[in-house]
Design a protein that fits this description.
By secondary structure, the chain is α+β, with helices and mostly antiparallel strands. Helix content is 58%, strand content 8%. The protein has 23 helices and 9 strands. The strands form 2 sheets. The chain has a 6-stranded mixed sheet. Strands 7-9-8 form a 3-stranded antiparallel sheet, covered by helices on one side. Strand 1 and strand 2 form a beta hairpin. The chain is elongated, with a radius of gyration of 31 Å.
Length: 667
């Protein structure tokens, strides 16, 4: 016998009317938003690894049967890093293969540049940038295979084997600033395994953003399965009383949730694919992206669609326990959904465990820190409805206005529903608090407008430096550094310290003029000295900005869509209240306070916990908290609250429409 489940599900879906169709569309929109955000963060994480792999060839790997010499150094122009790869073919050795992005191994005197560097060479005067390279009639182009980003500045220069730029003096072991920026070795090819310092940690930083966004996305997707839950429960309870079995009820709900979730998730995946060119223009780390780097592949897209659909289905089916066991109580709405004290006990236990685990003197590993973050998110997600329930009871007891009383009763009658409305912003508050004070920084003001030139003969080099600077039109003061002075850019090595007057343009011109002076080492500024700290700071800032933006997108979508669905679910209740004489303004105020009250309590709590978590992270890193983050935090909180209220306000016309005919609505 053919099962009646699917035909009956289709019949009920068609007979839902305009209001029921709106609930299904809202659920699909939530699924689309969750899928889109999930794919974007996956793309950032996977794409960061792909970008890093394309920079491994620049780190020279020593080889016994070497065929060429490779020297890599980093110089700076307009405070942006410029990677210079010098290559020289060893005489009498087999021809070395072409480096990634080039058609062949560069000949002596040939210069290949990335498209972004070629554009910069056209814009800037030769004395500011081009004179750092050998003179050539035209530049070759470094292709995408050798670049991490379209915005990356990279130059590949062909040298003679006896050129100082590829000599042992260019090995880059004089100061601790050289790590990751300057290296030299005899190589047999370009099969390096160590990524550039400017891309090596990008994937780890992106993974942190994925972890912080994981639970808000899960909560948003689960909320899609519960949109329209009240009307669905009423409909299924009536079918249960009419003789439908619990298995049939579950099958009908699952079929409806799968259809809605799959449609929404596929829409979100299509939006992600359509917006890839625009997403590629968003800078992260070394710059914008190649579009292909952000394409996660058909497998990951299918997995994201399946995951969101599964979350929606499980969320919808998990609400059917009362329908299956007590359909009469559901039909009469006689059993308010209370929360148990066990939620508080679990949250306290998890919080104590986290504090104990992170309180050791040895610190914790990054993976353990990520696991503790996920554990905290999960515990707080369980704890939230309990707080909302108790808050509703407390507000109801001390309410002095009708709107406040209605808000308190709604919170205590359906704490899980109220929690779903604010959970997105509450969990985003943790990310806001965490990132607002976690930006580490170093003070490089002591080395501002200064250049270090490593040279063994400081006095004779100082005279030559003054001549070069004068010819370039640079106003500067040249002093000879002392070997025992570790507070300067020379860090205890022999050389010159040049103090340049006139700003960034003069500084770049001075670096260009001094290139080639002294040893084979390129002159460097405070950008070179503080690069490792600045890379970490910049990546954390990028991740914080992206995570906060996506968190508030998830929170706003969750609040707006859930608020609209709640209006449709409570259509009968609102109709009865209107028949009883309750003004529409009171209903709207009650709806707003129903959101504001738990938002202030819970979002404030998670924000404070985020600040504490960031403080512990900085403490483990041996750094201080960025005090300017207080302003950043205030801006995030204000913008998040305004976005939340704006999203809720958009459902006000819907409330007006569903209560336009209260007699019919109550019926």
């Amino acid at each position: 016998m053919r099962s009646p489940v699917l035909p009956l599900t289709w019949h009920l879906a068609r007979s839902l009317g305009r209001r029921g169709l709106q609930s299904l569309l809202l659920a699909a929109a939530v699924a689309a938003t969750g899928t889109f955000v999930m794919l974007v963060v996956l793309a950032a994480c996977l794409g960061s690894g792909t970008r890093a792999d394309r920079t491994t060839w620049r780190t020279p790997e020593p080889a016994r049967q070497a065929t060429a010499v490779q020297a890599v150094t980093t110089t700076y122009v307009r405070h942006e890093p410029l990677t210079v790869v010098s290559l020289a073919q060893l005489p009498g050795r087999p021809t070395t293969g072409a480096p990634p992005g080039l058609a062949r191994f560069p000949r002596q005197g040939e210069v290949y540049v990335s498209p972004a560097l070629a554009e910069l060479l056209r814009k800037l005067p030769a004395g500011r940038l081009a004179d750092r390279f050998p003179r050539t009639t035209s530049y070759g182009t470094v292709g995408a295979a050798g670049l991490a980003s379209p915005d990356e500045l990279v130059a590949v220069v062909g040298r003679a084997p006896d050129d100082p730029a590829v000599s042992s003096a260019a090995s880059g072991d004089q100061t601790w600033f050289d790590e990751g920026q300057t290296a030299r070795a005899r190589v047999a090819g370009f099969a390096g395994t160590k990524a550039s310092m400017f891309t090596a940690n990008d994937q780890g930083m992106a993974l942190l953003g994925v972890v912080l966004l994981a639970l808000p996305v899960v909560v948003l997707s689960a909320a899609a399965g519960r949109l329209g839950a009240a009307r669905r429960e009423q409909r299924l309870a009536a079918l249960r009383l009419a003789g439908a079995t619990p298995r049939q009820i579950v099958a009908m709900t699952a079929a409806e949730a799968v259809a809605v979730g799959a449609a929404g998730a596929l829409t979100g995946a299509l939006v992600y694919a359509a917006l890839l060119p625009g997403l590629a223009g968003i800078p992260f780390g070394v710059g914008s992206w190649y579009t292909g780097d952000l394409w996660v592949g058909a497998g990951w897209v299918a997995a994201a669609v399946a995951a969101v659909t599964a979350l929606i289905t499980v969320s919808a089916v998990s609400m059917l326990r009362q329908v299956a066991t007590a359909p009469l109580g559901v039909a009469q709405q006689a059993n308010p959904r209370r929360t148990r004290l066990i939620r508080l006990a679990v949250f306290v236990a998890v919080l104590l465990y986290i504090l104990t685990s992170s309180g050791g003197d040895g610190g914790i590993k990054p993976r353990q820190a990520l696991a503790l973050l996920l554990l905290f998110y999960g515990a707080f997600w369980l704890f939230g409805p309990w707080v909302v329930d108790r808050l509703g009871r407390l507000v109801s007891r001390f309410a002095r206005r009708p709107a406040t009383l209605l808000a308190g009763r709604r919170l205590s009658d359906d704490p899980r529903g109220a929690w779903r409305t604010v959970s997105g912003l509450v969990l985003a508050g943790f990310a806001a608090g965490f990132f607002s004070v976690s930006l580490l920084g170093t003070d490089g003001s002591a080395h501002r407008d200064r250049i270090a030139v490593i040279t063994p003969d400081g006095r004779s080099a100082a005279a030559e430096a003054r001549t070069l600077l004068k010819d370039a039109g640079v106003d500067a003061k040249v002093t000879v550094g002392r070997e025992d002075d570790y507070d300067t850019l020379l860090a205890g090595t022999e050389g010159l310290i040049v103090h340049v007057f006139g700003g960034d343009r003069q500084l770049d011109t001075a670096v260009t003029a001094l290139t080639g002076l002294g040893t084979a080492r390129a002159p460097y500024t405070r950008d070179y000295a503080g690069a490792s700290d600045r890379v970490a700071t910049d990546r954390l800032a990028d991740v914080s900005t992206g995570t906060l933006a996506l968190s508030f997108l998830v929170a706003t979508a969750s609040a707006g869509l859930t608020a609209a669905a709640n209006v449709l679910d409570r259509r009968r209740v609102y109709g009865l209240l209107r028949l009883a004489g309750t003004p529409l303004k009171v209903l709207d105020r009650a709806r707003t306070r129903e959101t504001v009250l738990p938002l202030v309590i819970l979002a404030g709590g998670t924000t404070a916990m985020g600040v504490y978590g960031s403080y512990r992270l900085n403490e483990m890193a041996g750094a201080t908290v960025n005090t300017s983050g207080a302003l950043r935090l205030a801006v995030c909180v204000v913008l998040g609250a305004l976005a939340m209220f704006a999203a809720i306000t958009t459902s006000r016309p819907l409330l007006r429409r569903v209560t336009a005919d209260p007699a019919q609505a109550a019926d």
